[in-house]
Amino acid sequence: MTRFLCSSLLLWAVCATAQAVHPKNPLGTGPDVVAAGHALYNRTCTACHGIDGGEGERAPALVGDRRFFRLSENSIFDTIRGGIPGTAMPPFSLPDDDIWRIVVFIRAMRSSASETDVPGNTQQGMAVFTGKGGCLKCHMLNGKGGTIGPDLSNIGAQVTLKRLRESLTQERPIPADYRPIKVVTRDGKTVEGIAKNEDAFSIQILDYQDKLHLYDTNELREILPGKTSLMPHDYDRVLSAQEYQDLVAMLARQVHTTLHVHQDGEGEVGR
Ligand code: HEC
Ligand code: HEC
Question: Which CATH superfamily is domain 15-110 in?
Fold first, then answer.
């Protein structure tokens, strides 16, 4: 909206002034500011949002995949101060510094793993990835590896640190493109892997050797969908604490996109 208005020459002067006075976070983003914001948030916002930014009864979760949220400090600041008109999100007349503290807390929760300071030895982490972890069997990293799991070359930019850890340690819902499946053909051959495309008449299976099989469903004697993801989720137990930490640190630094600075308002969904 602002951008539309500001593209009109008449309003240019007004908008330029308005943008120039937009407040900047004076407090920085250090751990003490995050902690203060966390406390304020849990005191002020959990009537609707869940505790620690989770889902509440009356408002959405504020943590999760960054793509779906307001991203810039300023747009979160404006949302807290002004509310979201037409929704249950009210305006708050807190002191500016307190709003900034909450903003810094929300941003910290939403940051991608690559924006988070993760201690650990990335070289050792790579050794775990290619060796003991056995990850290359299923995952590509920078052009090498298997394709039965997602390419991890940009994983640090795609998920939060929390979500990265959960992928390695907790059973999660299986994403649509990675449903495990086993079929037995009419002539008794068994093929196992993940179902890439499936409808009433045909099925495509990517097997552990990264080979794609296409079957008519009437060629098959049995179709057995797996219940759990092929992704193991016990890496915090099968690896030593140090190996696990190094692996996470290495993954968090995998960023493979051209650098792109988000403008205010860009990439936001909804109001
Ligand atoms: C009375 C209930 C209520 C309270 C209290 C409340 N919120 Fe909200 N909030 C909502 C609702 C509902 C939405 C979703 C609005 C919509 O549909 O877009 C929302 C949305 C938001 C969003 C936008 C989500 C996004 O996409 O980024 C932010 C940020 C937010 N709230 C922060 C806060 C903070 C910080 C506090 C405490 C200072 C707070 N809210 C207190 C109800 C509430
Ligand atoms: C037997 C195959 C297999 C092995 C071995 C394996 N993965 Fe996976 N992984 C998958 C599959 C399939 C998925 C996608 C389905 C899912 O998320 O459950 C996945 C998902 C993931 C994700 C989530 C990706 C995203 O976009 O959210 C991460 C991170 C990951 N694996 C890391 C690893 C690491 C690190 C290792 C080694 C320590 C490893 N995986 C070993 C098959 C495997």
Answer: Cytochrome c-like domain (1.10.760.10)
